């Protein structure tokens, strides 16, 4: 029997769930995965819907605290367990820049990257047809976003500064999938973006997330 | 001459800029507005683009610190000036629930509300025609989101708990505009949502933001 008090209600192939797994592994925290079967709509009905009324994976429990939304969950974990594992957030002014790049991930990168993941990876899993016009449009947009990342990553090793933080970590699930598609050229053609991708994809905590999938 | 060290590079009618003005007034902090003229593309060229390479209002300066993205700016202000004005964030576990509802605003409320603001308010200002099919679709979606807000606001006076926080504040600009459109019925037909809207729209700090526009 698991002694973990932390529970992630999620799925191995949910990118938002993977964000939380990666954070928990970086913090060297034990957790229990409570699998939610999205194919049977488990995320849209009880008991999950009581944990997240918006019906989106993942939800999270730490003792009597229940949270949802991967980015909010990770902020909680990083602050509440500041003394464990990798320091993923800061106090004071240094956190301000990390916050900016966390918002950039959420509002500039993810909306485009998630669409590309859906078109180029998830659609074929569901027997749907990729819309190449959407792919072309989103690739152009992602290229513009990554041009700005290239400048930023020429100034600092990571998005939030000299160290790996949540601002980098939150990109991992989408980048991992896109690196297995034609979109990888957009990352690899930009030297600083390419080096950053290689560094974050090689993190032991992220490799543990991939191992969870492989062992399933 | 102003002695304010804080500068908001923004515009009076930019909802994202208004979010930052509201936060600064809640914290009783002096600031200088550096107006960016969006009609002439001021947000897409220098000097603004050096402050925010994504070309979106607002950007923010506090001494030698430069930030962009309204939500990241507000998190910085609320934490850096914790001892001033209204306490808009918490330390520890109490902040976790505020973070969840900040993400709800950003990912569930704002994408729908912003589209409705564009269709029902901004389009007529630009001489464009409202697409009523889009309005109908987004109203249905907003109704679903507000059903969840209604349950939440029956449990606590504000989204993040018993007190007004950034999770509430970030909704103000879009709600203010939508209350002047047909969408107000979606807020007013839900008693707890309606009471919450009335409470947050009446905050003195928000009235100061409206006064900025009126005095222009």
Description:
Two copies of one chain form a homodimer. The first copy, chain A, has two domains: 6-87, Glutaredoxin, CATH 3.40.30.10; 92-202, Glutathione S-transferase Yfyf (Class Pi), Chain A, domain 2 (Up-down Bundle), CATH 1.20.1050.10. Helices cover 56% and strands 8% of the residues of chain A. Chain A has helices at 15-26, 48-51, 70-80, 93-125, 132-155, 166-169, 172-178, 184-188, 191-201, 204-214, and strands at residues 6-10, 32-35, 59-62, 65-68. The first copy, chain A, is built from ten helices and four strands, in the order βαβαββαααααααα. In chain A, 44% of the residues are buried. A four-stranded mixed sheet of chain A has the order 2-1-3-4, with helices on one face. With 216 residues, chain A is α+β, with helices and mostly antiparallel strands. The interface between A and B is medium-sized, with 28 and 28 residues.
